[in-house]
Amino acid sequence: MATNGRGGDPIIRVRGLTVDFGGPAVLENLDIDIERGEILAIVGASGTGKSVLMRAILGLVQPRAGTIEAFGETFGRDGPSLEVERRWGVLFQFGALFSSLTVAQNVAVPMHEFLNLPDALVNGLAGIKIELVGLKEWDFEKYPAQLSGGMIKRAALARALALDPEVVFLDEPTAGLDPIAASEFDALIADLRNTLGLTVVMVTHDLDTLHAIVDRVAVIGERRILVEGDLDTMRRFDHPWVKSYFGGERARAAFR
Question: What is the Cα–Cα distance from 237 to 240, expressed in whole angstroms?
Answer without folding.
Answer: 9
